[in-house]
Amino acid sequence: MKNILTLILAITFANCISAQSLEQVKADLQNENFKAAKQSLLIINKTQSSAQSNLYLGNAYLKLDEMDSAKFFYLKAEAGTDAYANIAKARMAIINNADKAIVKGFIEKAISISKKRDAEVFYQAGFLSYQPKAVAPQDYQVYFEQAALLAPDADYYKLALGDNLLDQHEGGKAMSKYEEVTDKNANNLMALIKIGRLFYSSLNYTKAIEFLERANAINANYDFVHKELGELYYLTKSYEKATAEFRKYLDLNNNDSRAKATYAGFLFQLKEYQKAVDEVSGFSKQDTTNFIYYRILAYSNCEIKKMKEAKVAMTNFWKYCEKSKLITLDYIYSGRIATGNADTANAINYFSKAVELDSNDADLQSEYAKVLFNAKRYKQAALAYKKRTEMKQKTASPLDFYYLGRSCYSSGDFVNADSAFSKFVNLQPQSPDGYLWRAKANVEQEDKTNLKGFAIVHYKKFIELTAADPSKHRANLISAYNYLAFVALTQLDNVTAKENFNKILQIDPNNAKALDELKRLK
Hints:
Helix content is 75%, strand content 0%. The protein is mainly alpha-helical. Helix 15 (257-269) runs parallel beside helix 17 (291-303).
C-alpha cells in the first residue's frame, strides 16, 4: 500500500512540476526568451515529452531561425492526438505547402478538441501565421481575437493581437491594443517593448528609445532590448551609447555565436573595421565554421585594403556558407576582393552575378561598369554604362557619362563617345577632360588627310582651362596645338600654323615635329 501511495504521489508531483515548467516555458516564449525556453523544453522532454512541449520546442527553434530542428519537433508533436498535436499537423501542412483547406481543417479539429474554450489553443492557431515572419496575418486575426476574448486577464494575448494588427500595417490599431495593457499596468515590460518597436518602425527614434529605456529600467536582462537600443542609438548617432548597448547584448548572451556576429556586424556598420577584424579573429578561433564571422572578416579587411587577408576570409566564407544564406553584398565584396588581388576574371563574374541579383542598384551598376572598363572590356563597359545612365533610380553622375564616353571611344564608337562627353561637359563645364575627349572623338570622325576642324572649338576650350599649368597637361596641350596647326595648314593659314607650332616649343623646346614644320614654313 505504501509503495502504491508513493508511486501515486510521485506521478502527481511529476505532473505538477511539468505543468509549472510548461507555464514558465510559455512565459519565456511570450517574453521572447527563446533560448531559455528551448533549454527548459529540452530538459522537460527527457521525462515529460508531450505534443504541447514538442510544439513549443518547435516554436522556439522557429523563432531562432533553426528550421530543421523546428521541423523535427513539429513532427514529434503531430504524432499525438490532442489539440496541440493538431496545431503541429497544421504547421507541418504549412511547411509542406499544403492546401489552405487542409491547414484550416487541422486548426478546426484542434479547437474542437479543446471545446473552443482554451485560449492557448486559439493563440497557437494564430501563431501559425509566423513562418517565421508573418504570412497572410489577416487570415489568423480571428484566432488572436478569440484568445484575448477567452482570457481577458492574460495581457499577452492582447499584445499578440496587437502584433497581428501591426503585421497587417494597422499601426494605430496595434498601438491601441498595446496601450490597453499599459493602461492597466504601466510597467508591463513586453507592452513597453512593443510600443517602443512600433515607434522604431515609424522612424520616431526618440520615442522608441524612451519606451525601450523604460523597459530596460524594469528589467535590464532582456538581451534583445539592448540590441534594439544599440540600433537606435546608432541611428541617432549616439555611438558611445550604441557601443555600450551592443556590448551589454553580447555579455548577456554569454558567448553565443549569433550575438557575437551581431556585435561584429555593428562594428562594421560603425566603420570600425580594424576593431571588427580584431574581435572576429578571436571569435573565429572558437568557431571555425561560422560563415558570418568569415563574411565580416572579408568585408572589413577589404575596407582597410588588406586584400590578401580578405581573400583568405572570403575563401572560407564560400566554403562554409549555404547557398540559401547568400546575399548580394557577398558577391559585391567578392568582386572587390578579386579586383584587389588582380583576379579580373573572377571580379567580373562576381559583379555580374551581383547585378543580376539586384538590377535596380545604380551604384552597383556603376561599379560593375568600371570593373569592365578597367579590364579593357570596352564594348561590355559601354553597354553597362549606357544602362547606368538610363536608370531612373538615381541620377547618373558626371563620371558615369565620362566613362561611357571613354568606353565608346576605346571600342571605336566615336559618335556616341562624343555624345557622352558632351553630357559630361554640361555637368562639369570647368573640367578640361570633357573638352579634351570631345576633341579626340571629333578628330577620329575626320579625314586625317583633309582636316576640317571639327575639334577646334573643343581643343581651344581645353587650352583655355589648362594653359595656366602647362606642365600638368603637357602631352595633351602639344596634341591640341599640333591639331590646330595642321588644320591651319590645310586651310593655307601659315601664320596661325606657325603660332601654334611656336606654342608647342614653349612647352617642349626640343619638339622635333614642331621644329621641322617651322623650318619648312620659313
